[in-house]
Amino acid sequence: MTKYLEYQLKEIKDTYLSYLGPPFNEKDFSPPRPNTTALSLPSAATRLELWRGLENRARLAQNQRAYSVLLAAVRELARSTLCPYLQTSLLHFCTGLDGLLGSISGLMTTLGYALPPPSAVSVGGSDGELQEPRRDVEGFWILRELQSWLWRSAKDFNRLKKRLRG
Amino acid sequence: MPRSSFSPKPKCSPIWLICILLGLSAVHTHGKDVPTVPQQVSLSPNLETQQLTLSWLGGESTTFDIMILRTELNETVFYETVSVTADKISGQHQWNWTSVEPLECTSLSVQIRSRDGQTTSDWSDTHILPGMDLPSNKDSQMFPQDRVVSVGTNTTFCCIVEEGLGFGSIRYRDLVMNVTRLSRRSYAMTQINQGPSGVTGTNVFCSSDEKTLLNGAVVFVGYPPLPSDLVCETHDLVSAVCQWNRGRDTHLYGKKRKTYYTLNGRDCTEANQNQKWSACSLAQWDGNFTLVARNLLGQYSLTDSSELSLRVRPVAPANLTSVVRAWNATLLWQWKHRGYDSLALICQVELTSHWHTTTRTFSGVGLRSVIVLDLRPDEDYSIKVRCGVQQNFWNWGDWSGPLAFRTSIDIPDAPDVWMWIERDNTGRLMWKPLTHRESHGQITGYEVTLWSPDENIQHTETLPQSICTVPINLTHISTTGSSSNKVIATVIAKNAAGVSPPASIVMPLRWTDIDPPAVSRTAYMDGGFPLSWQSDANASCGYVVEWHDASCQQDCAVEWIKVAAENTNISAQSENFQPGVRYTLSLYSCSSEVPQLLQRWEGYMEELVPSSSVPHLSSNQQDSNIKLSWGEIPLVSRRGFLLGYHIYLNNGSQLMLLANVSDPTSRSYTVKGLPVGSYKFTVKAYTSAGEDTGATVSISLESYTDWLILEMLASLGTMTCFLVLVTFICYKKRKWVKKAFYPDIPEPKLAGDWSRTQGPLDVKPSPHSMVHIVEEPEWDSSKEALVVIPEEDEDEDETGDEPVDTDEPTSLRYYNQVIDDRPIRPRFPDSSASSASSLDSARTDVTYTGIQTSGNSLGFQLQPQGSSEGQQPQIDVPASCVDGGGGYRPQMQPGSLSQDMGLPAPQAFSEPQPTKGASFGGYQPQCSWHLDSPVEAEESGGLAPSLGSPTSVASTQFLLPDSGSKEQPEGKGQGSSSATTWFHNLLSSAKP
User: Name one GO cellular component term (chain A) (predicted).
Assistant: First the structure.
């Protein structure tokens, strides 16, 4: 599922960056990660030895939290998007992401892990709270983080599958 | 001297005047005092509009110098003298300045001083408007943020670099812009004449010198709203609905930037943003309507005004129902608004059947039902309605939803009946299958009735609906009691609603072989064959035009069309017409009697090239000409009216047109004037569409030799007869011939007196030259020739012992050397001796005169060259008797002669002699008939090398050989001289 969402996200990201226009749709463009959402948006980047040292419970918990935040962020992104096609694509993607989140939660419950308390997720804000370039950069980073998390989740789930079989 | 004591003028001192003037001047100077320095200067920035409002107390002054500097770099941004009047109430002066750059970009210092003419006050204290580039704000920033501007305007952006970083560039979309440094950390650039933005605006980004993004801004460039065509109307006779065209795209989207509309002050939130047309409703008709469109760049107003009655546009009729019959239907509907009950309405009913749409109009007060006529039975219809007000018509209302129904069935129409009679008196009764529109319901079958009016006998047959032709044996009918020559056939169609009216036709009982009228041609055009004819008085019920494939022989597919009596021209049209097929079209008159054939046409829908070439193409040589013949192309293969034939000479790679036979009935063509050789001919028939692929035939034209052969045979026959006659005569007269041409040679007298000079031949070689050769310069020495024996050579060999005058054959010598042209010296001393003796002997001239040629003398040539020149044989050659071969030795055997001469036998010669075998042959003229040619003489073993038959100087008669010549060995020349031999034998046999 993460692979499917990763593929789906790639198309959406291309469309979204074209929608933002230059320089966002330039290949090497990488704006600084904004502080506004970084506070609540967990980064998929982590030190390798730390990641390897994480147990299944911790991994699943981090995934669960990350997708909770990211799902809300993508929904906000869809809401603020003025392009109907892109809006539809983002909302469709949210459905898949919601399914993934449900799967992770179900797995945690099955394994007897406690679900992390739902954090008061607040991503972005209503129209007018953020200036346009910051909103654009934030959208850029939401999709980038989502891409990273989907890649990381695939690894986590593979390891989990091996551990559970063993 | 007298002293005047009178001084009438008072004395006015100039000192006082100067003092007064100075005093006045001082007073005046004191009145024009230095202007007061502006006090209480305050700065009030408007960051959105980039406007800075300056306020100060400036006393009485109305003119001020204002100076604005960029604080950090102390650069002057503005320095001008302005006139500002003080507010009457507060006494404050206020002046606005609009900055090109956003006011946040850098700190600005403001100073003001009063001016009175050239007098100015001191500058006020410097007042600083702090920018966002103060060291306390370490982060990178960019201004302005989210600015909305009109298309074509210029906007200046500034980037404040993060503390500690270096500035890199500012990009507007993807363009790197030229920048101006405003302060230590602030840089600005201006984008001029901006174009409209996209949905997300235009991005402006600032990067550090390490090409990392520092910050960005978005500018939204668009247009103010420009709606048009505001129109308001009512549907329910109470409320108002206004529509307008949104006009050009403002390029401004989103809640903040989109266009908002108000109608008579009421927000039109329902106005669809994505449509070109927007609408907004008002609960009550107001008569005057004002639409205001507004966005961040401006607003635009539209107005409309009208009375309600002039703007009534009815709603769509609702709840449509129908009452359906076979040929009409009643349509009913309802109105949503009661006000329509008294409203005069005009309604359109749109009827659609088989994708064909017709519109009918009805009117009435409060109209809610109509009867739709002229429908067809058993037909599907779709119907919808819309209405407008009859008075003060404004616009058609919306169409109602469609209502579909099917009409009832009805009895069928009468079938279209026709007949076809074959030559064998069998016929077919045919009718066209009823179309859906004609059948008025599903056809269940047909009923065919044959009725003989005289006998009043009737035969009825019921046929299923799939049958539309029935065979009729007219012979059977005529032989079963009908005395009439016609029968009436009637066809009726049946469906669930009943039977159709009968369709009848009168059929003849036998096929009448009437000569068809002249067949004319008709050309297909505009989708049919145009036909016209003279009106026929007998055509009481009109005409029938019938057509079929002209090449069809049996069970032909026949089509027809019935024409009213008043029409005398139609266009025969059919979907079945095929290109390349000849159609026969016949016109019949329709009456109460049997239809009469009036006229006939032939035509092609489209002429094509013939599908096959001419059959049976053959070629025959006639004399020196070639006759090409071919057969007729079958009608089905012609595919067009034949216009003729093209005759081509086919040389393998290309065709050369020989002739154009423009008569299509022609079946042959004669090619003349061709030389002997092999030829291929291609014949191509052609129509107006072109020529066929062609048939090819080959022929080898031979010379016409029959007459030549006959002539040759006749000549040979004549010659043969002549020869036979000559032979016969010669045979009969052989004695005379012998006497004339072959007299007895006097017998020589060998013993006795050698000195006698009397004899048949007095051969006395010249002491100097034995043979005189007439030499020609061009004579080829390599060829056979007589060789001159040089006299000196002769002299050397001369012994002088021999008698001078002698008849010794050896004294008569000549060589017919073939190869060696050198002077040949006789190798044997005897010969030399004899030659020497001959030199001394009396000279005897042997002259070759009148060399006689026999019948095959053409082969007896002295020399090929000489004969060709025609000279040599006629030359009189004074020849001495040389060698021993040429001596005149009549009736003498060679062997005995040599012995008599005392010469060594020929066998003793060690070297071959040119005249070997004949050297001592003596005189053998008779055997030289076929040995005239030296070549032959040599080939034949060196027989006597005499040229022709030498004649005596005293006689021109031939010296005929004796019979001993027969003993000469037969050589190659034997065969060639067989005729001569035969003649010789013939003559010999005549010898006594």
Answer: extracellular space
Record: contact B213-A136, CB cut-off 8 A: no
**All residues at 6 or more sequence positions from B875 whose CB lies less than 8 Å from its CB, including other chains:** B774, B848
Whether the CB-CB separation of B382 and B404 falls below 8 Å is answered with: yes
Q: What length is written for chain A?
A: 166
**pLDDT tens for each residue of B388-428:** 999 999 999 999 999 999 999 999 999 999 998 887 778 88
Q: What is the rounded CA–CA span in Å between residue B820 and residue B817? A: 6
Task: Show residues of chain A in contact with B255, CB under 8 Å.
Answer: 127
Residues of B in contact with A139 (CB under 8 A): none
Decide if A21 and B213 are in contact by the 8 Å CB cutoff. no
Closest chain B residue to A80 measured between Cα atoms?
A: B254
Closest C-alpha to B512, from B564, B588, B459: B588
Q: Residue A129's domain is classified under what CATH number?
A: 1.20.1250.10
Q: What is the ipTM of this complex?
A: 0.70
- Please tell me the total count of domains within chain A: 1
Name the closest residue on chain B to residue A26, using Cα atoms: B174
Q: Which residues of A touch B145 (CB under 8 A)?
A: 131-133
% chain B with pLDDT above 70: 70
Residues of A in contact with B205 (CB under 8 A): 23, 31, 133
SS3 B948: coil
Q: Which of A22, A29, A132 sits opposite B146 (nearest CB)?
A: A132
Highest mean pLDDT among B625-629, B701-705, B885-889: B625-629
Whether the CB of A118 is below 8 Å from some CB of chain B: the reply is no
pLDDT band for B737, please (50, 70, 90 cuts).
Answer: confident
Is omega for the bond preceding B634 within 30 degrees of 0, making it cis?
no
What pLDDT does B928 receive? 41
In chain A, residues with a C-beta closer than 8 Å to the C-beta of B254 are: 82, 127
A20/B contact by beta carbon, under 8 A = yes
Host domain of residue A59: 2-165
Cα angle B122-B123-B129, degrees, rounded to a multiple of 5? 165
Radius of gyration of chain A (CA): 16
- Structure-token match 């001592």, residue found: B920
Give the pLDDT band of residue B832 (cuts 50, 70, 90).
very low
- Confidence (pLDDT) at B697: 92
CB B104 within 8 A of CB B47: yes
Q: Do residue A82 and residue B254 have CB atoms under 8 angstroms apart?
A: yes
Nearest to A22 among B174, B213, B253 (CB): B174
Q: What is the helix (H) or strand (E) element at residue A98, kind and residue range?
A: helix A84-111
Q: Is the per-residue pLDDT at B220 higher than 60?
A: yes
- Give B948-987 pLDDT, tens digit per residue: 444 444 444 444 444 444 444 444 444 444 444 554 555 5
Q: What is the pTM of this model?
A: 0.54
Nearest 5°: phi and psi at B936? -60, -35
Average pLDDT, chain B: 77
Q: Which pLDDT belongs to residue B185?
A: 93
Higher pLDDT pick, B464 / B897: B464
* B253 → closest Cβ in A29, A31, A82: A82
Q: CA–CA distance from B75 to each of A165, B46, B109 (Å)?
A: 75, 22, 10
> Is A35 touching B (CB cutoff 8 A)?
no
Amino acid at B641: F
Check CB contact of B173 with chain A, cutoff 8 Å. yes
